[in-house]
Design a protein that fits this description.
alpha/beta, 8-stranded mixed beta sheet, single chain, two-stranded antiparallel sheet, 416 residues
């Protein structure tokens, strides 16, 4: 509908450590001189989005985002470098608390995972080593957390500040992700993330109201985005993170509980300018074969829950665009023949007012949409908890390569 230049939009899904893939996507956009107008994200996608839109640096923002991810990888505890005895003792002391109260199925998940591994001993050695590494990385996060992002509630340093430290039967979360706020202090200038701020990118974060199940949208063009909004968008309860109080009476969890792809919120926030949209898909929609064991079943079910489901939104956007084109045609016919039609002046005024509203508040079309899809060469249900340095580097590299290929294959569109 609009005759403005295309609005470039980046949509970032959640997915824990899989968010490093989105970092690579953004790096490729920068290197191909594609500037963003709007960036929307939920969960770790929201964290990425906040760093991009609110970066303390004016230049090389892609490097800033990559530095953040490498810092997260520094918080990863490599179990292989620990004494077997100390690692085992730590496991026995710490894991017994959550297992005792059955807050998270650590033991059942481990049993299921090991069962799957045993059934696949015939696989080649590299694949087996990868699966073992994934299991170790998961348990590293479970036991030790990541002091750059989240710490286990049973950690000794929590004893003095947590009034329920010795009352796990009252716990509603297992991990405190407030360390993320401190880490972000080095990367985010919150003065940019407010109406009239000097950021060139509009930031949209999503969450859900714990009490009402209603969606929450935090828009930097409408309100000041603060650390609590970033913690809210990343407060995923099945990662055992705590809800965040964003204002009186409003407690928020991760927006991926409702939708892991916040495209609808972008369309609602900027309904006039036509759009070129990049959707970062951390969870594949399609697979080549059915799951063969329980871990693969759980993995596939999770991918389906968090995969992109915006196809309906895109189709509805196209339908609305056609309707608006039709309204435009009828209105212009009316204006060109107003003298002949003898319409009552009051009625004509109402028609003109309605047309103005429709014209000003709606009409954006999705002109181009690109899905940047992460591949899973060695799928594993715990892959989103792997913050090991090499895994993070590989994910960033994959995101960059996938995006570069998309831009290369559509170079004629991007050169306009």
């Amino acid at each position: 509908m609009s005759d403005n230049t295309l609005e470039n939009v980046l949509i970032l899904q959640g997915g824990g450590s899989l968010g490093a893939f989105g970092c690579g996507v953004y790096k490729a956009l920068v290197k191909n001189n594609i500037s963003l107008d709007v960036i929307a994200g939920t969960s770790i996608g929201g964290v990425n989005a906040a760093i991009i839109a609110g970066s303390k640096k004016q230049d090389n923002i892609d490097q800033t985002l990559e530095e953040f991810w490498m810092e997260l990888s520094e918080g990863f505890v490599d179990i292989d470098k620990l004494s077997p005895f100390s690692a085992w003792n730590w496991y026995m002391k710490t894991l017994q608390i959550p297992s005792m109260y059955n807050y998270y199925p650590f033991d059942s998940l481990l049993s299921a995972t090991l069962a799957g591994v045993k059934e696949n001993y015939s696989l080649n050695r590299i694949e087996m080593e990868t699966k073992v590494k994934q299991i170790k990385s998961f348990y590293s996060s479970v036991i030790f957390g990541n002091d750059k992002m989240f710490i286990p509630r049973w950690a000794p340093e929590c004893a003095l500040k947590d009034p329920e430290y010795f009352s796990p039967q009252k716990w509603t979360y297992l991990y405190d992700h407030s360390p993320l706020e401190k880490t972000l202090e080095k990367y985010v200038d919150y003065d940019k993330l407010k109406p009239g701020g000097n950021s060139n990118i509009r930031l949209i974060l999503t969450a859900v109201n714990v009490m009402t199940a209603r969606p929450l949208t935090f828009d930097s063009y409408k309100e000041q985005i603060t650390p609590k909004h970033i913690l809210a968008t990343s407060a995923y309860p099945l990662y055992n993170f705590h809800w965040i109080k964003v204002k009186d009476g409003v407690f928020a969890w991760d927006g991926s509980l409702l939708s892991n792809t916040p495209l609808r919120e972008v369309i609602a926030a900027t309904p006039v300018r036509d759009k070129r949209i990049f959707i970062v898909e951390n969870y594949p929609k399609n697979i080549d074969s059915l799951p063969e064991n329980l871990p693969e079943v759980y993995h596939r079910a999770r991918d389906i829950m968090f995969s992109d489901k915006t196809e309906h939104n895109i189709q509805m956007s196209k339908v609305i665009s056609r309707y608006l084109d039709y309204i435009e045609e009828l209105y212009q016919t009316l204006e060109n023949n107003v003298d002949k039609l003898q319409i009552d002046e009051k009625r004509l005024k109402r028609i003109r007012q309605k047309y103005k509203v429709y014209k000003q508040e709606h009409g954006a079309e999705i002109k181009e949409i690109y899905h940047v899809k992460r591949e899973e060469s060695n799928p594993h249900i715990t892959e989103n908890a792997d913050f090991s340095p090499q895994t993070i580097k590989n994910a960033i590299k994959e995101g960059e390569e996938k995006t570069n290929n998309i831009i290369k294959n559509n170079h004629k569109r991007f050169s306009k």
